[in-house]
């Protein structure tokens, strides 16, 4: 089991942090472009296009697969969202201030919800409390990097975070 990537997106939609912690095999490599021209929303456990159109895809169309892989979207408790395929799960946690924490992980990886809370805690402790960090700007903090990598190692080995970890 593995955690592939961690992304932090500011409230304007800009990528302010990216960590690729796992190198997938070459035949499973996928390319994503950001930002998407389409806005996807979850409706009755189906992922639908809510805004935009491109290459014959229009509002109301359901997304059944990405690159031939079935897609199941779900809302979870506490504002978390999940997009599940056969090869990965994309978990998203949006804070009240609009910062989004996104984790791409193996579908069998457990404890991602607690990992998202831990990443938010690390962001609060090592990025926001850093006097040289400006909000909405890219995160360039060595302590944030070190603690995030440590949290990912713990999550991959143990699968969950207990109280006080």
TrEMBL record:
Belongs to the TRAPP small subunits family. TRAPPC4 subfamily. Its main location: endoplasmic reticulum. Core component of the TRAPP complexes which has a function of guanine nucleotide exchange factor activity for Rab1 GTPase. Plays a role in vesicular transport from endoplasmic reticulum to Golgi and autophagy. May play a role in dendrite postsynaptic membrane trafficking. This is Trafficking protein particle complex subunit. SUPFAM superfamilies: SNARE-like. It comes from the Eukaryota. Keywords: Endoplasmic reticulum, ER-Golgi transport, Golgi apparatus, Transport. It is found in: Endoplasmic reticulum; Golgi apparatus, cis-Golgi network; Golgi apparatus. Coiled coil: none annotated. GO terms for cellular component: endoplasmic reticulum; Golgi apparatus; TRAPP complex. It comes from Enhydra lutris kenyoni. InterPro entries: Longin-like_dom_sf, TRAPPC. Pfam families: Sybindin (PF04099). Component of the multisubunit TRAPP (transport protein particle) complex, which includes at least TRAPPC2, TRAPPC2L, TRAPPC3, TRAPPC3L, TRAPPC4, TRAPPC5, TRAPPC8, TRAPPC9, TRAPPC10, TRAPPC11 and TRAPPC12. Interacts with SDC2. Part of the multisubunit transport protein particle (TRAPP) complex. The gene is LOC111153721.
